[in-house]
Design a protein that fits this description.
By secondary structure, the protein is mostly beta strands. It contains one helix and 37 strands. The radius of gyration is 38 Å and the shape is rod-shaped.
Length: about 450
């Protein structure tokens, strides 16, 4: 599954630089009309290591350098990938302009010569993206790299990316010449990362018990600890026995609030379920139990079987009769026991054959004991007090459109009542998975 997610972006600082429409003779102009002499190094020795504001440009060895704009974001989306998704840090995007204003060729400042300083901490420019990548969000534009052997009048504009902690409030973007570190310049500004949305999954849960054929709600709690509203967006996947489900969580959360996102699952087999959210460390594992039905209820067995089955309440009797060649044969139970006969009506409403549980996979139980299915005397099954075909070991097997009534025999203690009994069936489905159901 392709995983891609981003949080909504709010700019905490946008600082505009000068444009080419300004006075071409101004030292603050990033695009002056006149080139300087190739030997000129305007203000380099005087301005080295000086802190500047974002509307100031510096000239070093015939190259004019300026920072035009700064953006904060929880994540960055490039054409080929997303960065910082679900990260506890924030992105600082700085727009850099560098222009050769000399009369000869020059090397523009390399991206790696820029650093972000905050107190005693230093952060390097993010250098992973490919040179062909462009930024899609929170801004659109090219990345800055720093060209070499640039001819007079040629400029490069682009974005440099930094990843920093949310705790920062004032930063300096510093540049130093990699060949002469005495040439150093810094641009300082305040930032407010706490005004960005800070969205995270605080909990995940599922309404229990989770059973075959029943709808269960999966809930994801999302908290926004940031200063502005934002939209949490992330891909998710829910793995269930036989099948899986995937999609995208999309939930808007106000600043300081918590919202609940939900989805519904309907398992078709027993086993374990797993919810995973892209780039989140939290995952939810849960168990899936068998289906619960009432005696007399008509239910559809899990696909691909698709048989419609009605399990009747057990008939408790001291005898049953079956037919043989010389007439009816009556079978009596032991004095301290009784027969419990379960009748199953099955119907195939599909265009192909179906199969379901057999005699070996069913039990009858009360609160203390389980009783295995026995055999009726005779071949076809009883005719009194119920009539039906004896459920064999191969189970319910129906051709397209076929219906059949099956009966199952149990021998149980004589003091057990109908209300104490549950009928339990378990059988195999596709992909080495099992299903089970209980009627009570």
């Amino acid at each position: 599954m392709k995983r891609r997610a981003y949080l909504s972006v709010i700019s905490a600082a946008t600082i505009a630089g000068c444009t080419s429409s300004e006075d071409p003779n101004s030292t603050n102009d990033p695009n002056p009309s006149d080139n300087t002499d190739s030997s000129e190094n305007s203000t380099a020795s005087d301005d080295s290591d000086e802190t500047r504001s974002f509307d100031d440009y510096v000239t070093n060895d015939g190259v004019k350098i300026g920072l035009d704009e700064i953006e904060l974001s929880n994540s960055i989306t490039l054409e080929s990938e997303s960065l910082l998704d679900r990260s506890s840090k924030v992105a600082v995007l700085v727009s850099v302009t560098a222009k050769n204003i000399s009369n000869g060729t020059r090397n523009l400042p390399d991206r790696d010569e820029f650093n972000l300083l905050a107190g005693t901490d230093q952060f390097d420019a993010f250098s992973d993206p490919f040179s062909s990548d462009t930024i899609v969000e929170p801004v659109s534009g090219e990345l800055y790299y720093g060209q070499t052997n640039v001819h007079p009048g040629v400029a490069e504009e682009g974005w440099i990316l930094f990843e920093v902690p949310r705790s920062l409030s004032e930063i300096t973007i510093a540049w130093s010449d990699s060949f002469d570190d005495s040439d150093r310049y810094g641009w300082t500004t305040a930032i407010e990362p706490d005004q960005l949305p800070d969205l995270q999954v605080s909990s995940v849960s599922v309404a229990e018990p989770v059973r075959i054929g029943e709808n269960s709600e999966v809930a994801v709690s999302i908290t926004n600890e940031g200063g502005t509203a934002g939209t949490y967006s992330a891909d998710y996947e829910i793995d269930l026995p036989i099948e899986s489900d995937s999609g995208q969580i999309e939930q808007e959360v106000a600043a300081g609030d918590t919202e609940m996102w939900t989805t519904t699952i309907t398992p078709r087999a027993i086993g374990d379920g797993l919810l995973e959210i892209e780039s989140e460390e939290v995952a939810l594992r849960f168990s899936i139990g068998g289906a619960q039905h009432q005696f007399g209820e008509t239910v559809q067995t899990p696909s691909p079987e698709n048989a419609y089955i009605t399990v009747s309440e057990p008939i408790l009797t001291q005898w049953y009769e079956y037919e043989r060649y010389d007439g009816m044969k009556r079978v009596e139970s032991e004095s301290n026991e009784q027969f419990a006969i379960v009748q199953i009506e099955a119907k195939n409403r599909t265009n192909s054959s179906v199969n379901s549980f057999g005699r070996r996979s069913v039990t009858l139980s009360n609160s203390t004991n389980e009783y295995e299915a026995g055999y009726f005397e005779g071949i076809s099954g009883p005719v009194n007090p119920v009539d039906g075909s004896q459920l064999n070991s191969f189970g319910i097997s129906l051709s397209a459109g076929e219906s059949e009534t099956y009966v199952v025999l149990f021998e149980i203690p004589a003091d057990i009542g109908v209300d104490d009994l549950e009928f339990f069936a378990e059988w195999s489905l596709e992909f080495m998975t099992d299903t089970k159901a209980t009627w009570r």
